[in-house]
Design goal:
heterodimer; A: alpha/beta; Dna Topoisomerase Vi A Subunit, Chain: A, domain 2; 14 helices; B: Methylamine Dehydrogenase, Chain H; 4-stranded antiparallel beta sheet; 28 strands; repeat (chain B); WD40_repeat_CS (chain B); WD40_repeat_dom_sf (chain B); WD40/YVTN_repeat-like_dom_sf (chain B); WD repeat (chain B)
């Protein structure tokens, strides 16, 4: 997944970063602004609880070894949402969790392996909590790839362990490898005293550190924040979601918008930033319901496909030079902005939905419907998905850019907000 | 020479979400929208009053509802975004029964798992045969299933690609004589099947862009197809030849979402995403009327069948049509009389 979050003080500064992440190889970016240093909230007060729980767990195992009893690590699974079929009857068991413990010696070889791997994770978490350092899931895997077998095995066990202990993943001092990038005129002041200045406007942005490690933020002149999702291969990561949620809690006046592709995954990603994810429902402070869905919306597309004869002759839409013009537009805002509301539509930015897309759209609609009351936001999301299915098209955000320059479109959209 | 149509009436906010599909009977019009209820408005009264609301018909909203073209108007079928098909029936209109007996009732429901049959793609467009006995529905993997409504069984499946590999069938129609089935696809292809022989008879080219509407003329001699190309292609059904296009001079016409022939087969109605509804004189190949209440997208346009019944005062005898879409309202037009 690629996500970019951006803060910019004035609309004009947007230009500086936009081209870079449109073509960015990096997952995340954020640009900022505003004028003051704000204390970052202590990430969680559950951390101490997690340490004592982990220690109690380890003690129980030691006791069991002494007494010769069976060793048990309490362990419950967050059931994967995958097996919800499209039969239409599902969604009943929203609370689908299974209870169990992992034993040693296990009833199966599989269980023995699981115990060993889990025990190692607990050990690593314990060491991280004691030392006050944070360890990444990736790091855990590379401690012993033979034992863990796969990164996803580690990811699952970490999340299930956190869920079992009733804490967040970060409370175990375990985080996902940083994916988010921050770009814009703000400074992140970390607990170790280092200052990460994010206004390297021409470049790729600063990797988002874990929320727990941020002590203060200097907002300087930041007035709004834009989250940009690029190349959705997975889901918004916890670190970025925590960061957004924390930002909103300390600076609720700072408008936060999200820009995602017009496709079912884009809607799902936007919803994850807003409402959290089903799978990691036990995590706290990871949702930002105030997030504004900036686009791409069906109206942006309808405007284009319904435009009659007035402009955009066929020939003018499919100029190949998109990539190269990105470089050229990095520094200066283009003086001509006549066509911003109806930017060019490179043929490749709109494509038909695949069967998988259509299924995914219905899946997201079921989630919205199952959430109960249809307020304005939810009705809006339903409408966008319905239109997507009716039109049978999806559109990437290049759809609204003007040969690689998305600032004109953003100017208009964000001006409405400010 | 153009024809004149006037706005006869607009039912504002006919649904709480945008209207995706219309299906007329001789005395009423059914509408389906992004909300869960189907609605029925009378077309015999100049105020087009709401006759019936069918609540919770389709939980995730409904994208297609159909009645039989030229049929009695006692059967309707609807497809929800969740993939379920529902067949609705009511007593034959006009026999002065109590109002309650004139209401639509659920007759048959095909769950998503059975509607797509054999685990194929999800169901999309539907059409009813003129005798109201058969239901044709398309799937996202390019098949067309035909169901016998009374027997409640699938009697035919037309494939348009290697098993499960067909292009999304976005539109379907059945000829009034029951002989032919036509499908319009995302790939731009239009296929015609002979129902007696149970096989494809024509593979029609000409549009190259997604086809969103196909419609047989009442006499079953012609097939009209339209979609993202923004033009209407006309095909002869005797030999499967492309016999012409209906277009207006425009470099980039809006996507056409809906087509309907009038009862005499002289005129075609089209609706498009730019909010324009057009009436075409088929013989002369020209657009004779263009209307646009708003610029918001139209999803469905339908002629109201000519009816033998006496219409309410003020209804006249002129031909009428209805257009609906993103505005959520039903707009009724009638031909200006005295021309």
């Amino acid at each position: 997944m690629r996500v970019a979050a951006t803060f910019a003080p004035f609309l004009s500064s947007v230009l500086c970063w936009v081209p870079s992440f449109i073509d960015s190889r990096q997952p995340h970016e954020t640009a900022f602004n505003s004028g003051d240093v704000v204390q970052f909230p202590a990430a969680s007060h559950r951390g101490a609880g997690a340490l004592s729980q982990i220690e109690a767990l380890l003690e129980a195992i030691v006791d069991a070894v002494h007494s010769g009893d069976e060793l048990v690590i309490p362990y419950r699974s967050v059931r994967s949402p995958q097996n919800t079929s499209d039969a239409g009857l599902v969604s009943a068991d929203r609370d689908g969790r299974s209870t169990d413990g992992v034993r040693f010696p296990g009833r199966t070889i599989q269980e023995t392996w699981k115990f060993e791997a889990l025990f190692r994770i607990i050990e690593l978490s314990h060491a991280a909590l004691l030392s006050g350092h944070v360890i990444t899931k990736r790091n855990i895997y590379y401690q012993n790839p033979e034992l863990f077998r796969s990164q996803s095995a580690v990811d699952n066990m970490v999340d299930n362990l956190a869920f079992t202990l009733g804490v967040g993943r970060e409370d175990l001092n375990i985080v996902a490898a940083a994916k988010g990038l921050v770009s814009g005129p703000i400074d992140l002041i970390l607990c170790d005293g280092s200052i990460h200045s994010c206004d390297t406007s021409t470049d790729t942005g600063v990797l988002l550190p874990s929320v727990a490690s941020i002590r203060q933020i200097n907002f300087r002149a930041a007035r709004w924040l834009l989250v940009i999702e690029k190349e959705a291969k997975g889901f918004p990561d916890l670190t970025t979601r925590r960061f957004l949620c924390a930002l909103h809690s300390i600076r609720p006046d700072l408008g936060i918008s999200v820009l995602v592709d017009f496709d079912p995954d884009g809607v799902a990603i936007m919803r994850t930033y807003r409402y959290g994810s089903k799978r990691l429902g036990h995590e706290e402070n990871v949702a930002t319901p105030q997030l504004r869905w900036l686009g791409i919306l069906s109206d942006d597309i309808l405007l284009d496909v319904t435009s009659g004869d007035n402009e955009s002759q066929e020939g003018s839409q499919s100029l190949p030079g998109q990539e190269t013009s990105i470089q050229g537009s990095q520094n200066e805002r283009p003086t001509k902005r006549a066509r911003v509301t109806k930017a060019n539509t490179p043929a490749e930015s709109i494509s038909p939905l695949s069967q998988r897309d259509r299924k995914k759209a219905v899946e997201v609609m079921r989630e919205i419907s199952a959430a109960g009351s249809m307020n304005g936001d939810e009705a809006n999301q339903m409408r966008e998905l319905q239109r997507m299915l009716m039109l049978n098209i999806k559109a990437e955000m290049q759809m609204v850019d003007n040969y690689g320059d998305i600032t004109g479109w953003l100017d208009i959209k964000l001006t409405v907000q400010i | 020479m153009s024809k004149q149509y006037l706005t006869a009436h607009t039912v504002d906010e006919a649904h709480p979400a945008e209207i995706f599909s219309l299906a007329p009977t001789p005395t009423s019009i059914l509408s389906a929208s992004g909300s869960s209820a189907l609605r029925v408005h009378s077309t015999t009264d100049p105020s087009f009053p709401l006759q019936q609301t069918i609540p919770a018909a389709h939980k995730l909203g409904c994208h297609h509802v159909c009645t039989a073209r030229g049929g009695l108007g006692t059967v309707a079928a609807s497809v929800g975004f969740g993939g379920e098909i529902k067949v609705w029936t009511r007593n034959r209109a006009g026999n002065n029964d109590t109002a309650g007996e004139d209401e639509w009732r659920l007759d048959w429901e095909l769950a998503p798992s059975s509607s797509k049959a054999d685990g194929g793609g999800d169901v999309w467009a539907v059409a009813l045969s003129a005798d109201e006995g058969y239901l044709a529905c398309t799937t996202s993997d390019g098949r067309i299933h035909v169901w016998d409504i009374a027997a409640r069984e699938r009697i035919q499946t037309y494939e348009t690609g290697a098993r499960g590999g067909g292009s999304f069938a976005m539109a379907v129609d059945l000829s009034r004589d029951g002989r032919l089935t036509a499908s319009g696809h995302e790939s731009g292809a239009v296929y015609v099947f002979n129902n007696d022989a149970g096989r494809m008879v024509y593979s029609l080219s000409g549009l190259a862009k997604p086809v969103r509407a196909v419609a047989f003329s009442p006499g079953c001699k012609r097939l009209a197809a339209a979609g993202n190309a923004g033009i209407i292609a006309l095909y002869d059904m005797e030999h499967g030849e492309h016999v012409g296009n209906l277009t207006t001079p425009s470099t980039r016409p809006a996507w056409i979402t809906s087509l309907d022939w009038n009862d005499t087969g002289e005129y075609l109605l089209s609706g498009s995403l730019d909010g324009k509804v057009k009436v075409w004189d088929v013989a002369r190949g020209v657009c004779v009327a263009t209307h646009s209440e708003t610029e918001s997208a139209l999803w469905s346009v339908r002629w109201l069948p000519k009816t033998e019944r006496a219409l309410g005062p003020g209804m006249g005898k002129s031909e009428m049509f209805c257009a609906a879409g993103a505005s959520r309202s039903l707009t009724f037009y009638r031909e200006a009389t005295g021309s």
